[in-house]
Each structure stands twice: as C-alpha cells, then as structure tokens.
Amino acid sequence: MRALLAVHFVGGGPLDLQAIAQETGITRSNASTELVRLEAEGLVVRTPDPYDRRRIRARLTPAGTRRLAEWLRAGVSAIGASFSEFSDNDLERLTRLAEKIGDPLVHPEISDVRLQAVRDMYPDLSFAGMDTAFAIGRASDAILAHVDGALSGARLSLRHANALILISHLDGAPLSLASLSPLLGLNRASAGRILRELEERDAIERRTDEADRRRIRATVTAEGERMLAVLVPVLAESYRASLSSLSDKEQDELLQLLHKIVADT
C-alpha cells in the first residue's frame, strides 16, 4: 500500500522506478512488480511520460482512491490501538529513541509535510501515536538496510537468513506456508519463493509430510549449516552496529517499550 500512497502524492506527475523504490523502501524490481499488480487490480493507471521515456506518469483510479482511504483509516486505527496504554511520556521516549536509529530520509512519503497532508485528508481521525509509529518504521528500515548490506557478500537477504535460522530451529518438524509466512513476516507467495531460492542454493531440503500432504518437512543441509556458521556472527555484529547510536541503557529502555506494544496487542 505504500506504493499507492506514493502515487497519490505524485498526483499524476512523472516518476520512475527508483523514485517509487525510495518512496516505499523496496527494491526497483519489487517496485515494478508492485505497480504492475496495482494496475492489474484497477487501482492505478500508468502512461508513458511524453518528455522522458525512462519515466511514467501514474495516478490513482477511483477504486485506488477508495482502497487507499480504507488502508489509511485501518492503519491509523490500528496504530492508535497499539499505543492505547502508552502515556504521553512513553510515546515521547519511544519516539526519541527510534529517531536516534532511523534515517529520516528512508521514507520521504512520511515526512512531516506528507504526514500533515494525510491528517488533512482525514480530520475526523485521531492520529495519536502516529509520529511514534513512523519513527519506529524509519528505525526498522534503517536497521534492515544495514543488515542486508552486511549480508550482500553472501548473496543472501535477511529474509533468507531468517528462514534458514527458523528451519534449523524447527529441525524437520512439519510446517505449511500458512504457518511459516507469519513467522517470517511475509505473505505465502514470498515465503514460498524464499524456500525455493534456499533449495536452489542447496541450503535446505524439502519433502512432503507423509502424514499430511498439505505440509512439508524442511531440513538444513551441510551447505546450509556452513552458511549459518558464517551468517549468525555477521547478523549479530550488524545488529549491534545498527544500534550503536544508543547506549546500553537506551537499548534496554527501547526493548522495554517495544515489549509493551506487543503485550498490549
């Protein structure tokens, strides 16, 4: 849905895949896939830019405008519910800590100007906690970008590393994409793709569960174990480095506040 928001702010003006990628925090390839999907669903109309063939012009359709409104309303409500037990002081502290990690340029679409524009679109909604949520989002993206950069030498993404660690932990227990995808924070299609790519790298082996043909059993191969031996120290160091802007005390404070969100949901 970030792509819908980005197209909304462009307002029919010119844009390219790099701009969409920067606006949404995804890769150019995924930005292209996302635009194609949105157009196929009738949410976006794309036309060539008459002045620059490398760019396109995009605008929301009426259906896209309605979908964006539904998404924004649902998101604002969910954010408000997530912070319902937070005091103003808690929100201030969490925002301050997250801002020390996140790069404010990671998501230009959630800058102060654009956030105010969203507020103006829906004056009837309470935006309590929104600044905090956006600060957390920027911090999360900054950390993930740092970790993905550290893993680039191994030609693996953090998603691949997480899947490999999880499969190693499950140790051959039966699983389905329906159960695996939420553990990885992915939809089923993306989780399936990650498993296929790990299998192509000879990192895992998959077989159908004989007791339930809808499930699989996945195990880490010797090559996968070798990858893990390299990946785990890299991950630990990259996470440590990405939080280096916070003192040990601040990291503990951040963890306590984040745990409070989880406990209240």
| Beta strand % | 5-15%
Main sheet specs: 3 strands, antiparallel
Number of domains: 3
CA radius of gyration is 21 Å
Identify the quaternary structure here: single chain
Question: H/E series, N to C?
Answer: HEHHEEHHHHHEHHEEHH
Which structural category fits the helices and strands?
Answer: mainly alpha
Q: What strand line-up does the widest sheet have?
A: 1-3-2
Shape: globular
Distance between the termini: 22 Å
Overall residue-averaged pLDDT value:
83
Q: How many helical elements?
A: 12
Strand element count? 6
Flag low-confidence runs. Answer: none
Question: How would you portray this structure in words?
Answer:
The radius of gyration is 21 Å and the shape is globular. The protein contains 12 helices and 6 strands. 23% of the residues are buried. The strands form 2 sheets. A 3-stranded antiparallel sheet has the order 1-3-2. Strands 4-6-5 form a 3-stranded antiparallel sheet. A hairpin with a 7-residue loop joins strand 5 and strand 6. The protein has 3 domains: 2-64, Arc Repressor Mutant, subunit A (Orthogonal Bundle), CATH 1.10.10.10; 88-149 and 246-264, no CATH class; 155-220, Winged helix-like DNA-binding domain superfamily/Winged helix DNA-binding domain (Arc Repressor Mutant, subunit A, Orthogonal Bundle). It is mainly α.
